[in-house]
Amino acid sequence: MEKEVYFYSNGVKLYGTFAIPQYLNKNKEAPIVIMSHGYGASQNEFGDFVYLAQKLQETGIASFRFDNRGCGKSEYPLGRMLCCTEWREDLISAVYYVSSFPGIDAGRIGLFGEGMGGANVIQAGGSENISKCIVALSVVSDGFKWIKGNWLRNKSEKEFNEFLKIVNEDSIRKSIYGKSNLIKMSDALSYPQKYLDLIETLNKNFEDKEFTYYVEIASIASIFQLRPIDFADKISPKPLLLMAGRKDGIVPWEENSKLLFERAKEIKEFKLFENGDHGLLAEPTKSGATRMILDWFKKYL
After folding, report:
1. Distances (CA, A) of 69 to 37, 44, 119, 276
2. pLDDT, tens digit, 9 for 90 and up, residues 67-93
3. Which of 31, 44, 135, 288 could, after both became Cys, cross-link 241 (CB 3.0–4.6 A)?
4. Backbone angles phi, psi at 141, to 5 degrees
């Protein structure tokens, strides 16, 4: 059973979806997993979160997926995705909201995130006592280093420095006029060509509220401030599961998940999928990744 709802984060109306086990109607409280989607995506994460929600339901675990500010149906300017600050507030607000929902065990809340959503659950979970355990997939460890690394690998240092000037000029403009300019995601995030092609495919096949193609330059400045590496060790003693793909050309595992795992304290686990790419809930890693996620939440919630 699914139920569409809305809640507020710092006065902004956000929309989400509960996936509820059948026994919730029989006066038995259920644990719940709150899902945080990736950069430019929305609450369904192109179907990945719908699939995971169904699998969690089958094990008796409820879930809640929602649109962060600047994405999906959120009543906020589309593309204004301030991942370091506002997304953290949105996740914490989602936790408080689900805690009030009848039939949910507020003492058994798990956090799950992919990509930028994974960074969000680590920062929020490491700074606030809002969950029992965390799972993060293909997660960035340091926003500035991540973007710079991709620019240096796929373009040049000169081009990256020119891009920094664009971001800085936009910050000045925003302080004067109150608005940030828009930029194509593919122009801001210097991915390898196959991922840039994927962005164009997503733009053609999905509506704006499902995939945000134009993003505010201010959202890139927000990523620069993102540092999950500073929060990884603060999650303990809550169990943390990190997962990554060796073939991930967007968020290289050695510079990100590996460093987060080394910084984290017990209880922790790291799974590297040899054939995995950025999206671990897609083939060929879909079944293996799903099984590990379900086992983690069944064990620790």
Report:
1. 11, 15, 16, 29
2. 999 999 999 999 999 999 999 999 999
3. 135
4. -95, -35
